[in-house]
């Protein structure tokens, strides 16, 4: 729901470093514009206004968001349209793909309006594709199950996989497209020896609670039945703020791969520093309950907000591998978080930069913001509290992925490429494309929601070009 394209240099890198011709920023910008219906008051050549995806700020805001924007100015950071002119470093209110206080998903934007009208579009609900069928290296269709019954469907021209970073990689591997060594271990006949699953990338984050010591609540009152009633009747108010997110800041660390592209994002959530619901979520995603209770738990019930530093340009790459030949068996997913030593150093430095620069401003002092002063027990000897060493230690114990997985079916001409610049599977395979976040050769410095929809738009345009004049 966060609508961030990433930095223009991300796409130039796709084209110039990875050989994805036609994917430089000047090439993908028209496709961003095509899908967008911008309501943010920043009309220029970087934004579209006639597309299917509404983009706007939340229809509600808090005093905290206003104070954060003031703090940015006081700390010397510019206010930017991070989806506009290529100067991403700075601060902004959060842009979201939302309409009338609700998420406006890709399904709502592109499928639901036409599914009942298009005779050539059939959506098979309750179906799971389990394999791509080949005749030699020619793609002839897919195998799928529906209500427990295995079926096959033939492809007249080609099959297009859009099953996501995990799903598309798993399907290719199950079908014999992947690293030969891995496929042969599972006795899967090899159709094409390609590095499927070998370039997994994701953003890494940590949720930190920042209490406020004054009586001012920063405009974040406890939710009440009145808030529920307001949202139910008018789709506005505090509940309409997506995951309480209102503010983004983009920063550079000294470890950035490109000095022109920020490698750190800081999101601020207008929500109390901690809650039992937050504990349930963090424990469900891997945090030990004792770690939450000792470090975060004491902030439950305190006024304040949450700060989420994100490593946007990780140097660590993971992998996806099959566990078995059963399509219902989840694959092994190794995110390889912090495998590269620069990653934890970068995000620790970025977090400290936010704390040192923003919390010392008059805007933040006006509500008495301070970093949480309880020491995380495993990091008691890592360094002074909120030093880079201490922050790095906390990240190593408590960091979580952001579910922005990408890059497992990378495009281009480099040694790690699986599809070409027109998203066609390589290795002499015919009739098979992939169109989702898995084809990114490198992760973007922003959330992957908007780039994924852009990929879909560009894929559709290429397919129409390839079959122009055919019935």
TrEMBL record:
Keyword Lipoprotein appears in the UniProt entry: no
Residues involved in FAD binding: 129, 403-404
Record keywords: FAD, Flavoprotein
Chain segments annotated as coiled-coil in the UniProt record: none
Alphabetized InterPro entries for the sequence: FAD/NAD-bd_sf (IPR036188), GMC_OxRdtase (IPR012132), GMC_OxRdtase_N (IPR000172), GMC_OxRtase_C (IPR007867)
Residues at the catalytic site: 404 (proton donor), 447 (proton acceptor)
Domain Glucose-methanol-choline oxidoreductase N-terminal: 1-204
A matching Pfam family: GMC_oxred_N
Transmembrane segments: none
Matching SUPFAM superfamilies: FAD-linked reductases, C-terminal domain, FAD/NAD(P)-binding domain
Domain Glucose-methanol-choline oxidoreductase C-terminal: 314-456
GO function terms (MF aspect): flavin adenine dinucleotide binding; oxidoreductase activity, acting on CH-OH group of donors
Cofactor: FAD
Family under the similarity heading: Belongs to the GMC oxidoreductase family.
Protein name in UniProt: Choline dehydrogenase
Organism, scientific name: Rhipicephalus appendiculatus
Source taxonomy: Eukaryota, Metazoa, Ecdysozoa, Arthropoda, Chelicerata
């Amino acid at each position: 729901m966060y609508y961030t394209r990433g930095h223009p240099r991300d796409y130039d890198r796709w084209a110039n470093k990875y050989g994805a011709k036609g994917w430089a920023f000047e090439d993908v910008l028209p496709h961003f514009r095509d899908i967008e219906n911008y309501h943010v008051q920043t009309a220029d050549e970087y934004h579209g206004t006639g597309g299917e995806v509404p983009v706007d700020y939340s229809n509600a805001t808090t005093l905290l968001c206003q104070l954060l924007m003031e703090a940015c100015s006081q700390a010397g950071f510019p206010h930017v349209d991070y989806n506009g002119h290529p100067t991403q470093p700075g601060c902004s209110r959060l842009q979201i793909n939302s309409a009338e206080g609700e998420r406006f998903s890709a399904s709502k934007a592109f499928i639901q309006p036409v599914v009942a009208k298009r005779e050539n579009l059939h959506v098979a609900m309750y179906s799971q594709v389990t394999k791509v069928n080949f005749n030699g290296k020619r793609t002839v269709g897919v195998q799928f199950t529906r209500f427990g019954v295995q079926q096959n469907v033939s492809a007249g021209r080609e099959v297009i996989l859009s099953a996501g970073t995990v799903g598309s990689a798993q399907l290719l591997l199950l079908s014999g497209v992947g690293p030969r060594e891995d496929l042969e271990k599972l006795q899967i006949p090899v159709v094409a020896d390609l590095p499927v699953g070998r370039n997994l990338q994701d953003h890494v984050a940590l949720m930190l609670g920042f209490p406020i010591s004054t009586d001012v609540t920063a405009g974040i009152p406890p939710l009440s039945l009145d808030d529920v009633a307001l949202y139910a009747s008018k789709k506005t108010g505090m509940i309409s703020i997506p995951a309480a997110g209102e503010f983004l800041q983009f920063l550079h660390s000294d470890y950035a791969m490109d000095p022109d592209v920020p490698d750190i994002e800081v999101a601020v959530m207008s929500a109390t520093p901690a809650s039992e619901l937050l504990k349930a979520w963090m424990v469900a995603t891997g945090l030990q309950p004792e770690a939450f209770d000792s470090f975060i738990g004491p902030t439950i019930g305190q006024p304040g907000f949450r700060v989420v530093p994100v490593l946007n340009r990780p140097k660590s790459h993971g992998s996806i591998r099959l566990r078995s030949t059963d399509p219902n068996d989840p694959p092994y997913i190794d995110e390889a978080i912090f495998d590269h030593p620069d990653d934890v150093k970068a995000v620790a430095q970025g977090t400290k930069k936010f704390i040192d620069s923003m919390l010392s401003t008059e805007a933040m002092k006006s509500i008495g913001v301070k970093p949480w002063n309880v020491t995380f027990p495993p990091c008691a000897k890592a360094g002074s509290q909120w030093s880079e060493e201490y922050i790095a230690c906390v990240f190593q114990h408590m960091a979580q992925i952001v579910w922005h997985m990408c890059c497992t079916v990378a495009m281009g001409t480099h040694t790690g490429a699986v599809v070409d610049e027109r998203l066609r599977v390589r290795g002499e395979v015919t009739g098979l494309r992939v169109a989702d976040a898995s084809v990114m050769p490198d992760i973007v410095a922003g959330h992957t929601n908007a780039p994924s929809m852009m990929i879909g738009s560009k894929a559709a345009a290429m397919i129409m070009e390839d079959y122009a004049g055919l019935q």
